[in-house]
Amino acid sequence: MHESRCSPGAERAAPFCTQLRAAADDFRARLAAQDSTYEELAGRAAEALSRAALASVLTSLAAARDVVDAALTADVTDARCDAALRQLAFVRRRAVAAGVLPAQQAPCTDDADAKTDAAAVRSLSLPPAQADKLMTVISALRDQERSPEFHSALRAETHAACSAGGDADTFTFGSTPFATWLIVMSSPPLAEALSRGGEYVVFGSSTGALVLYGRLALGLRSRGYEILPGLAARAEAMRAAHDIDNVELHCVDCLKAPLSRACIVWLCSLCWDAALYDAVQHKLAAELPAGAVVVDYGERLSAAPAFGGTPMWTARLRASWSEQQRFCVYRYEVNT
Ligand SMILES: C[S@@+](CC[C@H](N)C(=O)[O-])C[C@H]1O[C@@H](n2cnc3c(N)ncnc32)[C@H](O)[C@@H]1O
Asked: Partner of 220 for a Cys bridge, out of 102, 153, 214, 317, CB 3.0 to 4.6 A?
């Protein structure tokens, strides 16, 4: 199934217009509560941000405004919606960094998610011991994501990576709920790839959730690659604590991952900078076996001819940063 381009944009614009409206309401409420003016808030942002960071916020806002203008006046594509959501998330992160907005607790940690994930686990009809282990790992990951200690360690690690020349956005933390992951893994192109066998590989595996789900829920031989040592160490600790076999969690740049036996590659690419995304795209085109499928957050891979120009399957599903995250599945057809 392919989600088609739509025109004109009312229907497609609705999700991000709702988000923008919510963000504006939130901002207005904060202004009212703090009895501040826009100028005061902007002044606080200016104090907290370097000139370069401010310039990038302004560029992002201008780009977001262009997308919204386009949505109101012309055709809206999913790519444009995704671009607007990315800009919005970027501006929000900068505002949090500046102290203008408070850091929000990741919405994937609430009870509604726990119930949805539990129902998704039950839908698999696993042997009881396996289902229990999967549930235990899901709630241990949720507890970790709730913990202030986790977030302060992550902040320190991200800060160190940026001081060493990395791009802050590339290391952004986020999580994909189990129920969302299972919907994507159950899509026809992924079911077909799984039936042919091979390894499941996650690029940007963070605390290891998506890798561990692959093994525990579907019995896949699973590998993850995460560049931040603290996150990779937590992933390995979670694997070891629950004695999960046939899983590898590497603290290695995903550009060094071997792919010759991969049947599914899951790219946690939402916040990666353009240079990393380009390099990953070239690596996939050069190294994947024919028929392998790639899951991505958004449709940037449509620009790579090796992936057929359009996703084979797409859906908008819940993630920790958005109710409407777009997931795209591509098949790699070129190598033989
Ligand atoms: C959005 S997070 C992962 C999201 C998560 N797996 C989920 O459940 O949605 C993206 C991850 O990519 C990692 N990353 C960035 N550059 C990388 C690279 N070159 N190799 C491996 N991981 C990288 C970041 O450190 C970050 O943990």
From this structure: 214
